[in-house]
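Write out the 3D structure for:
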Amino acid sequence: MPADTHGGARAGVKIPSMLDLVHLSPRPLFPPGGIEICRQIALLTGMKKGGEVLVIPSGLAVTLEHFVREYGVVGSGVEDDPFLLDRAEERLRVNTMLERVHVQAGEMDALPFRDGIFDVVIAELGLTSRVSAESAVSEMVRVAKLGASVVLVQPVWKAPVDSVRREILGQHLGCRPMMVVEWKRLLRDAGVEDLHTEDWSDE
């Protein structure tokens, strides 16, 4: 593959990212952290039957389906990739969960919901694939109820990375990691209080 001086593809050449390759897997996969991180999220957010839970981007709706099955929540998801949305709907149909797990098309910086309706809003990998982190976090907070939980399951830089390397690595990963302090600043600026962080990295 022809490369530019930074080691990336020439302009106009679409190379699948790591996230794209994960989405091509024939097996439905939980995000990094697996089912254990889902259980921790449910515990920390006090997830309970009847609660309104939103997962963005919803991908194949694996996490969302788990929350609906295990905790009896009302599950909604938004996905900006038509291919993934079609696969998610077909998977849910086969699993007879399409009536209980609601997924729809939408953009991470323009969620198709009114203000303040979700008890828990969860952002998974791919949140920043096509939009800025600032706009995505702002939308998450907008659709969350007052006092709701906003959860970010995101890759982070553990040390400062210069802007050129960030851009190149972000393209390869399929998302735009930031440092924990940057995520915290965005959350605080959006009005989120009582921040809690956990490191689920696998050394």
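The first strand starts at residue 52 and ends at 56.
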